[in-house]
Specification:
about 55 residues
């Protein structure tokens, strides 16, 4: 779980990479939060591009 959390935070950069949560549950929740922030940003960008075309 440690490596999964580390790779998620480094690849998305929408979560605090300088803070390391201690519990596995906190790591999982912060990983989900960073992935959802990335997906939300991608959906907003895709919508803006589709409106421009």
């Amino acid at each position: 779980m440690d490596y999964l959390y580390l790779s998620t935070t480094n690849s998305t950069a929408f979560s605090p990479t300088d803070t390391m949560p201690l519990s596995t549950r906190a790591k999982a929740l912060m990983g989900v939060q960073s992935v959802s922030a990335l997906l939300t940003s991608l959906l907003v960008i895709a919508r803006a591009v589709s409106i421009l075309h």
